[in-house]
């Protein structure tokens, strides 16, 4: 529902700052004390999250955003629980945000502020380089960030099962680059969090399309997708999305050479996580 100008906004969950200015908010010693009161490791469930940055005046912004929550208190463990409950979440950012008490508009361009504890979830690793969202203006009201801490899961959990495919190998931060041209079927880039199941769906659809095309042409064989490599791409340390490579044979990733990063037109591209899957059963491509 669209908010009308000067409509009251939810009360904040964090203490107000006096004087009520963006500069005073970002210097509030209470907020900085909260950010610095937590250890570098946050246990949660069967794993733990490791600190990536601490007490920044900016929150993370990149393609792998999932969702956010408003918390009742500054609690990295509570934010970690939120991340645990979301299947694609691998990192979280907790911070304090200066928000307007009224919807800014012509009659109330710069209302009094409220403060909220926010927990943002991410489907990739985060780093100090990603904490670049320092706020924005809504009319004359300046939204700013303080006490921003970022944590990433210390180890990637094995990906969830993918229908029709069996998890083959963990290639760590490398991607298959030396497979022969005769086995390579194509690629697809999908912006957002790391989600190899989308590569599985793409592979299944591509096999079906190749099979139907062969039937239409009266061919006796087609090109099936018998394996794929799904890896996560970073551009200059910013999360971008999942890159899918399809192959008509079962690719042995341990024998294929890989690369961790490359530079193209001045930008550095790197791989954050990479797995291969093989079709189960293998498809002989015969009609």
From TrEMBL:
<protein>
    <recommendedName>
        <fullName>Apple domain-containing protein</fullName>
    </recommendedName>
</protein>
<feature type="region of interest" description="Disordered">
    <location>
        <begin position="1"/>
        <end position="20"/>
    </location>
</feature>
């Amino acid at each position: 529902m669209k908010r009308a100008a000067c409509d009251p906004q939810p009360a904040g969950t964090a203490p107000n700052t006096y004087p009520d200015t963006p500069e005073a908010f970002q210097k509030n010693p209470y907020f900085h004390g909260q950010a610095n009161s937590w250890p570098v490791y946050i246990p949660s469930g069967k794993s733990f999250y490791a600190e990536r940055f601490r007490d920044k005046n900016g929150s993370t912004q990149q393609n792998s955003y999932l969702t956010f929550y408003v918390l009742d208190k500054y609690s990295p463990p509570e934010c970690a629980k939120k991340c645990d409950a979301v299947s694609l979440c691998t990192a979280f950012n907790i911070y304090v945000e200066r928000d307007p008490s009224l919807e800014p508009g012509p009659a109330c361009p710069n209302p009094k502020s409220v403060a909220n504890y926010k927990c943002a979830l991410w489907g990739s690793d985060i780093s100090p380089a990603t904490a670049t969202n320092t706020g924005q203006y809504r009319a004359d009201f300046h939204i700013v960030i303080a006490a921003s801490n970022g944590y990433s899961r210390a180890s990637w959990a094995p990906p969830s099962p993918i229908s029709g495919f069996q998890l083959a190998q963990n290639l760590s931060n490398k991607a298959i680059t030396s497979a022969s041209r005769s086995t390579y079927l194509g690629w697809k880039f999908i912006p957002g969090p790391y989600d190899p199941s989308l590569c599985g769906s793409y592979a299944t659809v591509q096999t079906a399309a190749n099979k139907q095309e062969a039937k239409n042409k009266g061919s006796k064989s087609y090109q099936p997708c018998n394996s794929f490599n799904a890896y996560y791409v970073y551009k200059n340390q910013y999360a971008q999305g999942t890159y899918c490579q399809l192959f008509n044979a079962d690719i042995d990733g341990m024998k294929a050479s890989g690369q961790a990063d490359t530079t193209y037109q001045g930008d550095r591209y790197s791989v954050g996580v990479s797995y291969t899957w093989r079709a189960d059963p293998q498809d002989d491509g015969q009609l």
